[in-house]
Write a structure and sequence with these properties.
8-stranded mixed sheet, AB_hydrolase_sf, AB_hydrolase_1, 18% strand, hydrolase, Alpha/beta fold hydrolase, single chain, alpha/beta
């Protein structure tokens, strides 16, 4: 296990490949960096240095109970990359990871060479959404992850994607309830990133599974319409995890983005 002490926590991460072309991958909730294994292997082989870290509260990174807002995640990423001596990079995130990417674009746009926004959405949470996230956080602390993980598995991945489903189920069942709850409470307070999207000046890919119920195609279209010059790719037959469900299609779209960055 490779770790770094950053911002008062210990971060577990993978750092594979060498060179100045750096791709940073940000996982979603309630997952860990292993969700990016197909991309780490593919883009390392293609000559990129690829960094994938566990967010605070997940995987091998320190669990901090309470509330973890998106700006805290963003500063952890910046701190890890400072530790690794990486100044500029392409940044990709899925779901909550995509919202963290947008926070990074708001906070330190000068460090970004390109962006991938996968199965995510930019708008602020609604009052009902805030209640739902906080209620779910309470439930995870009360019951643990297993009931939730079983309920949502086949919304995370399309039912025919059984291998991806097994991987996703393992990540969710193994997630820390305290870490997941803290992230849910933080996401309930997230800002509207529409103005951030309109200010993006680097090559940007917006990608979404055709069957994603959590962040439907219309959410991807909203972002695509607001990021100048962005590309939209809809991955047929995938739900919320197209990078695992159809990695060859996902990787091709990201490779085309990297060629521009």
């Amino acid at each position: 296990m490779t770790t770094a002490n950053v911002n008062g926590i210990t971060i577990g991460y993978d750092d594979e490949g060498t060179g100045d072309d750096v791709l940073v991958l940000v996982h979603g909730h309630p997952f860990d960096r292993s969700m990016w294994r197909p991309q780490v292997e593919h883009f390392t082989a293609a000559g990129w240095r690829v960094i994938a870290a566990d967010l605070r509260g997940y995987g091998e990174t320190t669990v901090v109970p309470g509330i973890t807002t998106l700006d805290v995640f963003a500063h952890d990423i910046a701190g890890l990359l400072d530790h690794l001596g990486v100044e500029k990079f392409v940044l990709a995130g899925l779901s909550m990871g995509g919202q963290i990417v947008m926070e990074c674009a708001r906070t330190f746009p000068e460090r970004l060479r390109g962006l991938v926004l996968a199965d995510t959405f930019a708008q602020a949470e609604t009052p009902q959404g805030r209640k739902n996230r906080n209620d779910m956080a309470d439930r995870l602390l009360r019951e643990g992850m297993s009931g939730y993980a079983t309920e949502v598995l086949w919304k995370m991945v399309a039912p025919h994607n059984t291998a991806a489903g097994e991987h996703v189920a393992n990540m969710m069942h193994n997630a820390s309830p305290e870490g997941a709850a803290a992230a849910l409470r933080g996401r309930a307070e997230r800002p509207d990133y529409t103005a951030t999207l309109e200010a993006i000046t680097v090559p940007t890919l917006v990608v979404v599974g055709s069957d994603d119920e959590y962040t439907p195609v219309k959410d991807a279209e909203y972002m695509h319409e607001r990021v100048p010059g962005s590309t939209l790719v809809v991955v047929d037959g995938a739900a919320h995890m197209p990078n695992l469900e159809r990695p060859e299609v996902f990787n091709k779209a990201v490779a085309e983005l990297l060629a521009q960055a």
